[in-house]
Fold this sequence. Notes:
With 402 residues, the chain is an alpha/beta fold. The protein has two domains: 2-195 and 380-398, Rossmann fold (3-Layer(aba) Sandwich), CATH 3.40.50.2000; 211-378, Glycogen Phosphorylase B (Rossmann fold). 43% of the residues lie in helices and 17% in strands. The chain contains 14 helices and 14 strands. The chain has helices at residues 15-29, 70-75, 77-99, 134-140, 148-163, 173-183, 224-237, 259-270, 288-294, 309-316, 329-332, 347-358, 361-378, 381-398; strands at residues 2-7, 33-40, 46-50, 53-59, 104-108, 125-129, 167-170, 190-191, 211-215, 242-246, 277-281, 297-300, 321-324, 339-342. The protein has an eight-stranded mixed beta sheet with strand order 3-4-2-1-5-6-7-8. Strands 11-10-9-12-13-14 form a six-stranded parallel beta sheet, sandwiched between helices. Helix 7 links the parallel strand 9 and strand 10. The mean pLDDT is 91.
Amino acid sequence: xRVCLITEEHEGWGxxxxxxxxxxxxxxxxxxxxxxIVRSWEEDEHDEHAHGIVWHHTPLxxxxxxxxxxxxxxxxxxxxxxxxxxxxxxxxLHRLCETEPIEVVEAxxxxxxxxHAGRWRGGPTVVVKLHTPAFIVDQxxxxxxxxxADRALSARLEQRALRTAALITAPSRALASRVSAxxxxxxxxVIVAHPIDAALFAATPPSAGAEVLFVGRLExxxxxxxxIDAVPAICSAVEGFRLTLIGEDDPEGFDGNSMAAHLHAxxxxxxxxxxxxxxxxxxxxxxxxARYAQAALCVVPSAWEGFPYVALEAMSCGRPVVASAVGGLxxxxxxxxxxxxxxxxxxxxLAHAIVRLLRDPAECQRLGAxxxxxxxxxxxxxxxxxxxxxxxxxxxxRRGRR
Length: 402
């Protein structure tokens, strides 16, 4: 098939960017012709050929500030940005189809990036993949700077993009159910697992230390406050315990201030030594496997997750995951078999689970080995990408294109 994927993010910037890059390479390896329209932060539009994939770097100029538009642009900045990007995607896709007739487009739900894709006679079939719509994130994080009207219009655009898609897919039943209940979708989303490059995130021997790893943006929905509040109990129970936080800070994550600064203050309040918790910031994705290898386990204490790559990457590296029993995590991690699940936003139970594994290296090793086995069987790139291709075929058949 000739497939085009759409994303605002580059690989390693976030879950959608990572997912798109892994899927693109997997589809290309299966013999499909793959194009990716990716937002560029440079001024010039250009194409890049890599791994048999054509990456169409597409810039989005700043909005016009002509007289009479400044107020509208400021009050509806997010929604108007979504419309501008989706139309820019449509324009680039239309030009691409003139030389390479694309059959299927996959776009993420977030920011309605496929809203205008294929909106012409004979245009490609559009599949929308659920990741996490903005309305879910807004329920957990601090109130966004956008106005109420901006958030309402943004949600309406995401809903519209789903309702006009030929087919909707989701990585977990939990995410599919939550979105279906909110927006009364015409058809139930088809469950298609996220793929992972199991060769890049290869299994390594268990770590002998007591380092715990958190990977993710420092924001409330990721449960970082719960994790920090669990640190004192872990310190008192496990000698040599260290926590490493890898991820970008949210500059407005707590009362309009930096979430990292808020977490530092919380640690000081608890009397935790400064060298116990390391804030490593964001790092390139290719460096993550080495960080997983250094850790005894990975913790995913989120208040909500549709289907997190962090847990999948840790499991692929043979590391057990201590995770909140929420959303898609319940479908990914089997409690007591390949990881541990705890109640969300409960630092006492989170600390107990982490201490349990740090005190029992054999249990850590057993859970990590089972986690790697699950990844190889269900989520490794070839199998998961082949399933995505079968779903594309279904979408084409539904439209009578094949």
